[in-house]
Amino acid sequence: MDPILFLIFAAVAVVCGITVVVQTHPITSALALIGVMGSLAVLYLLLGAQFIAAAQMIVYAGAIMVLFIFVIMLLNAGRERKTRGSFLARLMGPPLLVLLLGAITFVILAVVPRDAMVKFGTYTGGTVENLGRAIFTTYLWPFEITSILVLIAIVGAVALAYKELD
Amino acid sequence: MPNAVPLSWYLALSAVLFTLGVGGFLFRRNIITMFMSIELMLNAVNLTFVAFSYRLRQIDGQVFTFFVMVVAAAEAAVGLAIILIVFKNRATLQVDDLRTMKD
Amino acid sequence: MQHLWLIPALPLLGFLINGLAGRRLPKAVIHTVAVGTVALAFVWVLKTVIALQPLATPHVERYFDWIRVGDLRIGFDLAADRLTAVMLLVVTGVGLLIHIYSIGYMAHEGGYYRFFAYLNLFMFFMLTLVLAANFLLMFVGWEGVGLCSYLLIGFWFLKKSATNAANKAFIVNRIGDFGFTLALFLLYLNFKSLDFGTVFGGLAGWQTDTGMGTLTIIGLLLLVGATGKSAQIPLYVWLPDAMEGPTPVSALIHAATMVTAGVYMIARSAPLFLKAPIAMDWVAGIGLATAFFAATIGMVQTDIKRVFAYSTVSQLGYMFLGVGTGAFGAGIFHLVTHAFFKALLFLGAGSVIHALSGEQDMRRMGGLWKKTPVTFAVMLAATVAIAGIPPFSGFWSKDEILLSAWQRSPVLFWIGVLTAAMTSFYVFRAIFLVFFGTYRGEAHAHESPPVMTLPLVVLAVLSLGGGAFQVSKWLAPMFPEHAPPENPLLLAVSISAAFGGALVAWALYWWRPALPDMIAARLKWLYRAAFRKYWVDEIYGATVVRPLVGTSREVLWRGIDVEVIDGAVNGIGRRALGIGSLLRLAQSGYIRSYAAWVLLGAVSLLIALGVLGGVR
Q1: DSSP string spanning C370-388?
Q2: Whole-structure pTM value
Q3: Best to test chain C binding among A80, A90, A91, A96 (most C CBs inside 10 Å)
Q4: ipTM of the complex
């Protein structure tokens, strides 16, 4: 059962990912990105990370991507124009991408043992309590800092985009 | 068929998604789409973290994912605000037109 | 504890008061402070000398550690022995008289407070020099008096010739100081101390030098320093020019005290010189050569102060001759008597100049004995003293030196006698030109006020009767046995030389006044050479000064400073700009190219970390 689920959703993720990158219209890219996130949420569940999977859908797909779509619609972004761009990116980009993928894969294959398996239900530690306990004890300091960071982001976003009502 | 998936497949998927994200960032000209590529990269990294959390049977990987999500949210908010302002001043979303830093 | 420090401290106090507040003080307060502090210092000297009788051993007072580096310890130490006592009495006594004289002489000059402040500062440094118990402190005083000399020669600083003379004095002095400094280094190297007691005590373990030993080298270097300060060949050239300063300055600094510092220093270092006979011979030789040389120039000068300036150089040569032949006491004795009559000659000349409202050329003087009788009387007293006519002071001191010279070598004696004759000639010449005959000038002559004439009278008494002081006998216990036999024949020769010179002067300037010009015409070249000081200044200028200045300007300034150093510094700046403009090309402004660079870096890092982590 697991492999089938994995393959289906992995395929969805990759296809959506390619769509995000290749598509020219921003709205389509955004929707494809939502698809990626959804499939990733399923994969998180398979890996036993219940809270993260839920959070992924609620926060990422439900809030962040909605924000993206709002902005795209606000700006009335249309199809992308082809412009003459950086010569360097076009020159070095593809080889570097290949190199990147190759390097990461190489490292994975070298480091991770062949018989490491993922079976749904084996790891039940991804509960809310466990996560909460970790956040409020070991990682209390980063937690507080990130909450301040969010506050800064709120204030910053409002300060930046605020428009005086005439 | 065994009821398990090799861990390396998860990691390989993460690598592919990450590379797609980088490619999108390098080759897209719309600034919003570039932003979305960044989100794609972040998601790929999250997948790696969760996978290793499973492997090591520790919660720390998921904690990290949690924080990544929070930071991504903050970043998205501020970044989009900046894009709004840039659009207001330049009336363009083409990143190649935004090169006044050169001079 | 005699509180020796008070002696230099009192004039220092005078300097501080007059220097800092003098601008607002009335003249009466200024000169009272200045003269008062010196008078108090003189009183304290008297008290100290009497209290320390019989002063058989040096009385040392150590106040505090000045320098303490490694094994070098230099303290602010003052010492008094018989030699110091003699010098102290001369410096404070004659200094006091000159301070009093200055009240009258500088009465109409601007910068009144500045003059007295500098004069007090000079007294401070000179007294430090004399009282010092180690070479370094003496050097501090040495340099300090050089500074005050510079300040006072250039007192009328708006006059270009005065500032030039001041510069010349200081620079030439510096050359001598360089020799002195090298001597200090060698002394420290060999004796690990600069304290007089330690150094001279340590000499006991040294053999007398036969060739160019270490002691001889030290002695010669000290001699270099002394020639600078005491205006001997080859560093005498600054003294005649120093006459640009006010006359009291010429009297105090360039006759009685500062220029004698070199003689004092050699006398103080007697234990060292006695073990370096070659250095002693050089001292005597240079002294005699300078005495003869300067006398020939003094015979034909027309500016009254110049005559006395060259006379000072010549008489200093006599002192060097004295100490160089081992007659240390005699050299110091001559220092004392010379202080009396030379100061008197200068102050008297100042009185004459003051009376004639600034005239200094003797060809425009004459017949002044009626107008300025007191000045005439005291000048005559000084003249007979310097000429060496018995029984006045100069005779006693000069005679001892000549006898000591005979002991070393008869040649020295004969040249010395010839110089004595020339000395007598030129001073009497000056007297005849200034005071006798008919007045050849235009000014209205008047006698000087008592504040100026009274010190002159005191000095005249000292010049005439100074022979009674028997300085060399009192100093004899300090130096090894050196009593040249009394030789009546030599005595007779030297007395006749003195009278002979006077006679010739009388003949040429009173009996047959036309003769000097005729003689000058016959010996035209000789006369020209002497009158032009043998062109020594011009020679120095061409061989030393101009090449040095030229090298400094072209090579050191234009070549090295501007091109090399500035070039290097500016070059670095330009290079940085250049590299910057190269690196700027990477900043294309395209976000995507930046991203590409980041990716490149990330991939490299990834691969590197992987390899380092042992991934194969």
Answers
A1: TT-HHHHHHHHHHHHHHHT
A2: 0.66
A3: A96
A4: 0.88
